[in-house]
Amino acid sequence: MGEDPASQVYVRNKKLACEYIGINSFEYLLPESTTQKELIELIEKLNNDDTVSGILCQLPVPEHINEEAVINAIDPKKDVDAFHPVNVGRIMTGNYDFVPCTPAGVMELINESGIDVSGKECVVVGRSNIVGKPMSMLLLHKNGTVTICHSKTQNLAEKTRNADILVAAVGIANFIKGDMIKPGAVVIDVGINRIAPKVLVGDVEFESAKDVAAAITPVPGGVGPMTVAMLMKNTLKAAEINKTK
Ligand code: NDP
């Protein structure tokens, strides 16, 4: 909904990924003036459309729309972003079909790099519902010892310096400096911060961090493309689930 420039980029990348792997995608570009009722009616129509396997509403929505009501309106079996409370709850228990795309992408990067999470000190900076919290649960399911940090955390650098695996999801450009990282740590930078019209940087100061860390993800690149890939994976899963509905 509306004209958010970042949302437009994200939607375009998702559509391109669908096209690339052969998933039909339908875009409903709604004007800012759309009411919550109209938006939810559209979601309900898509919930009942058997040719649609997955639904996502690109966030943020304009202020007059209640984000929670929109998320709750999506059929949990078509909730490919995994934001519906049913899917959130299932992530807590470890019995889930869909995982929020960004934390899922981080786990895929860790797994594919042959990094064993079990027993490791994992520090997640950020506790949002979309990234920080589910990220922490996924690391916990892999037997990491997880510390979640946020804006009220005291002595943050002390916590981050203890991390074998450090995930930064703060939303502040270059927030984590090299001297906040344990030598040899794995550093995953979720942040996407636009500091100039064509300049994106992460939450980690790459230059000072890259020689301290054993492995580090870049921004742009790194986690961003993985998020889109995991959306495709969730959509495929949704197609399988809805086929047997
Ligand atoms: P939110 O703004 O929802 O959450 C940010 C978190 O950082 C909050 O929990 C906040 O704490 C914490 N925080 C803020 N300031 C500090 C501080 N000084 N010290 C420690 N913690 C702090 O952001 P998101 O989780 O949605 O996104 C985080 C970043 O990841 C953003 O840059 C976003 O653009 C990016 N992102 C990237 C994606 C990708 O595909 N790569 C996908 C989604 C997001 P508190 O809770 O106390 O306020």
What does this structure look like?
By secondary structure, the chain is an alpha/beta fold. The protein folds into 2 domains: 5-78, Leucine Dehydrogenase, chain A, domain 1 (Rossmann fold); 101-225, 3-Layer(aba) Sandwich (Rossmann fold), CATH 3.40.50. Helices cover 40% and strands 11% of the residues. It has 9 helices and 7 strands; from the N terminus they run αααααβαβαββββαβα. It has helices at 5-21, 36-47, 67-73, 85-93, 101-112, 132-141, 156-160, 206-209, 223-243; strands at 121-125, 145-149, 165-168, 186-189, 193-196, 199-201, 215-216. A 5-stranded parallel sheet has the order 2-1-3-4-7. Helix 5 (101-112) runs parallel beside helix 6 (132-141) and helix 5 (101-112) crosses helix 9. The chain is globular. The relative contact order is 0.13. The mean pLDDT is 96.
Task: Give the arrangement of secondary structure elements.
Elements: H1 5-21, H2 36-47, H3 67-73, H4 85-93, H5 101-112, E1 121-125, H6 132-141, E2 145-149, H7 156-160, E3 165-168, E4 186-189, E5 193-196, E6 199-201, H8 206-209, E7 215-216, H9 223-243
Parallel strand pairs: 1-2, 1-3, 3-4, 4-7
Antiparallel strand pairs: 5-6
Helix pairs in contact: 1-9, 5-6, 5-9
The chain binds NADPH dihydro-nicotinamide-adenine-dinucleotide phosphate.
